[in-house]
TrEMBL record:
Keyword Secreted found: yes
Enzyme type, top EC level: hydrolase
GO molecular function terms noted in the UniProt entry: hydrolase activity
Function: Hydrolyzes acetyl esters in homogalacturonan regions of pectin. In type I primary cell wall, galacturonic acid residues of pectin can be acetylated at the O-2 and O-3 positions. Decreasing the degree of acetylation of pectin gels in vitro alters their physical properties.
Signal sequence interval, chain numbering: 1-29
GO biological process assignments: cell wall organization
Annotated localization: Secreted, Cell wall
Organism the protein comes from: Dipteronia dyeriana
Annotated InterPro entries: PAE/NOTUM (IPR004963)
Name of the molecule in the record: Pectin acetylesterase
Length: 405
């Protein structure tokens, strides 16, 4: 690959060296210097022994970009997000898409934000080994079951996919990790709550291990019609994919309905590994699918507000502020009593902020107390200072990137 314009021989040499250092896992796009990382399939022998398959039976996959320099023995693993399927018809549909089959996924992924290899864009993790774990099980890497009615076959093997990928990474250097961070976005952010403590078991006892969930703090909240939309959805998901026995046993023993431990607000207090919660207080996914799902707004009274916060009327703002208050209440104990944990709860209408460069670390990135998300996470991971940032209520934040689909 050649750069579009060579200003002098020195620049040409630098470009060539960067590209050679990247091979065979990645390339840098000459158009905008994007880091593209190639897919790695888990070895068929490993997957077969464990029974680790995507919904359609394809092999699990990840993207690895090697660390270098001082970060050569540090590892950052990022769970991909992408919703869930909680019944056979929706899982069958998902198995025929990129969300349920690595055969149908893009084979190259852009690494930006927390996955960037540029020190000026990702100052604390740029030279770590960075891994994006592809999502193809439909249950936040949490299930272990199979559906076979003689006509259709579905593998619900998120637990096995997680194990197979870790086993594949250990001989590639992760077995000697000094520092490690398990992260994830959306459904992948929820997976971090479910697998954080388990992650430690695969790493050296001397390693510094921490976890970061981005937009994964899904609330057990009634919708505007007072229905438990998210609770019902997750209950069906837990039953379908055989998840309950893998939930935190201390959590399940404490609740009358053990499947509720799939919700982070109930599981969080039992997680022993240092943890960072990154979330919007007005998370767009939860706003659109949990608080105001189409089933609760049949006449479309919320349509304008859903896609433009400035169009929300006084009552709608009141409801949204109530959602924010409930999120902060669910995090109160985490905020008050834990000194090893971190938090960044801003007031942007967004969902997932760690993988996008604009929201992770840029000149106009979201800030709380003049601190970007990247700075807050870095300060927490390296114990530079206590980092628990909570934004003032909407619409006070002038730094927001409102990312509404």
């Amino acid at each position: 690959m050649a750069a579009k314009k060579r200003l002098n021989s020195g620049v040409e040499i630098v470009v060539v060296l960067v590209l050679l250092a990247c091979a065979p896992w990645c390339i840098h796009s000459a158009d905008n210097n994007r880091l593209l990382v190639n897919m790695t399939l888990v070895r068929n022998s490993t997957a077969s022994v464990l029974g680790a398959f995507c919904l359609d039976g394809s092999l699990p996959a990840y993207h690895l970009h090697r660390g270098f320099g001082a970060g050569e023995r540090n590892w950052l693993l990022q769970f991909e997000g992408g919703g869930w399927c909680n019944d056979i018809p929706s899982c069958l549909d998902r198995a025929k898409s990129r969300r349920g089959s690595t055969s149908l996924m893009t084979k190259w992924e852009v690494f930006s934000g927390i996955l960037s290899n540029n020190a000026s864009l990702n100052p604390d993790f740029y030279n770590w080994n960075r891994v994006k774990i592809r999502y193809c099980d439909g249950a936040s890497f949490a299930g272990n079951a199979k559906f076979d009615d003689g006509k259709s076959l579905l593998y619900f093997r998120g637990q096995k996919i997680w194990q197979a990928i870790l086993i594949d990474l250990l001989p590639k250097g992760m077995a000697n990790a000094r520092k490690a961070l398990l992260s994830g976005c959306s459904a992948g952010g929820l997976a971090v709550f479910l697998h954080c403590d388990n992650f430690i078991n695969f790493l050296p006892t001397t390693a510094s291990v921490k976890c970061l969930s981005d937009a994964g703090f899904f609330l057990d909240e009634r919708d505007i019609a007072l229905n438990h939309t998210m609770r019902s959805f997750f209950k069906n998901l837990v039953q379908l994919q055989g998840i309950e026995k893998y939930l935190n046993p201390n959590c399940t023993k404490s609740l009358y309905y053990p499947e509720l431990c799939f919700f982070p607000q109930y599981a969080l207090e039992y997680i022993e590994t240092p943890f960072f919660v990154l979330n919007s207080a007005y998370d767009v996914f939860q706003f659109h699918h949990g608080l105001v799902p189409p089933s609760a707004d049949l006449r479309g009274h919320w349509n304008h507000c859903r896609f433009n916060p400035a169009a929300c009327n006084a009552y709608q703002i009141y409801v949204l502020q109530g959602f924010r208050n409930d999120m902060l209440a669910a995090l109160r104990k985490f905020l008050s009593y834990s000194r090893l944990d971190g938090m960044f709860i801003n007031s942007c209408f967004a969902h997932c902020q760690s993988e996008s460069q604009d929201t992770w670390y840029a000149d106009d990135s979201p800030r709380i107390h003049d601190k970007t998300i990247a700075e807050a996470v870095g300060d927490w991971y390296y114990s530079r200072r206590l980092t628990k940032e909570i934004d003032c209520p909407y619409p006070c934040d002038s730094f927001c990137h409102n990312l509404i689909p």
